[in-house]
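Hallway conversation turned thread

IA: we were arguing at lunch whether anyone had actually written out Phage integrase N-terminal SAM-like domain-containing protein end to end. Turns out nobody had. So, for the record, here is the sequence (164 residues) and right after it the structure tokens. Reply here if something looks off.
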Amino acid sequence: MYLFRVAQMLDDFAVHGAVLRRYSRTVDRLTTDQADIVARFRAWLRAAGCAASTVRTYDTVAGEFLAFTGTRGGLAGLDAGGIDAFVATLAGYQAKTVEQKLCALRSFLRFAAGDGLVGDTVLGTVPTAKSTRQARIPSVWSPEVAPLEWTPLTMVPVESQEGC
């Protein structure tokens, strides 16, 4: 089984030019400087008013990205090729997961550019993921009921309470 995984990993590297995320376990091994950058990014997200789940997810992606760039010269040498190689590691994920990770990456690079860790031009090289389906909030209200006001105590339309 192990040899099969190694062969698959080498094949993926030959095709994509990068070891895919599902094989890499280096996220736990951030350097002290990288961990400090992730902590500052986390504080930046909290100061921006992001939800706890967003902070947690973006924190994880930032760690993955820093671990990846650490194998390629760090943030100082980051260019479009480095971004493309990281995006290649997202092959095999669901479209929504890729979209989420790219959004997190854009936020991290926005932070890093503001902190002087990367150039402003790097941010423009992150591709956008197109959703496969149009996101839409389902509506449970019929067009006649939707504009009515509801009272919090009775949950009965105000229109029906007028006769009481």
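OS: looked through it. The chain has one domain: 2-134.
IA: good, adding that to the notes. Residues 148-164 have pLDDT under 50 and may be disordered.
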